[in-house]
User: What shape does this take?
Amino acid sequence: MRAHGIRPTSVTYGTIVNALCRVSNERHAEELFDEMESMPNYKPRPAPYNSLMQFFLTTKRDSQKVLEYYSRMVSKNIQPTMHTYKLLIDTYATLEPVNMAAAEGVMNAMRASGLRPEAVHYAALVHAKGCALHDMAGARATFDTAMANPEVRPQACLYQALFESMVANHCVEQTEELLEHMASKGVEMTPYIANTLIHGWSMARDVAKAQSLYDRIGMEKREPSTYEAMTRALLSGSGREQALEVVQEMLSRGYPSAVTNKVVDLIGHISSRATSIAPVDLVA
Assistant: This one.
């Protein structure tokens, strides 16, 4: 661009910073970000700040760096987005040192700025309390608060957070009532909720209930992770032949080998003929 006399815009910088974060090129992402902020034609936008915050949250697990980029965002008078606040909640609630009071305080900051916390923000708190702190009572209370708020639309992410909390705290039997509650609110089952419940029932040594969740999601909605969860559940219950059928269905759907190999490796080598639901060849 520069060779052709074209000056990069804030959007150009933001796009490249995001791409560098995706490939974990920390040094170049930060260097380009610094260059972006110093450009005379710089127009502050939240996207590149969110990209680096998410990178340091999910990849580097560095709360200090997340908060550093949030501070830089605020210093440029950039209005945080709904996603920014979600990243802040996750940072305070899941990275050391955990500060749950600060995580909950983000919700108040949102309201003060005229934004209404959504299901995804409550879900972050539910997940943090249930899975990180193993505070099942706190997770349920936050879920109930969200459900009682008429401004919060029930969404799958909120239920998934509580399902994951129940499984993490060995309360999988409580998920059946929650499934009914979810259906009553018109929230559809997702493959990610199914994965969680399949794993939970597998840990509880109830492969039949794991199978019922797998069947409920239907082939058209199954993800590679769903096939992996069900394969593991069946193998844990000595259901090798059924596990082979699950893997064969997965292979028939044309996923890249880089995606399917992890599941195939659970049961041994399967010949390429399995992609058309052919008999499997196992290496002894």
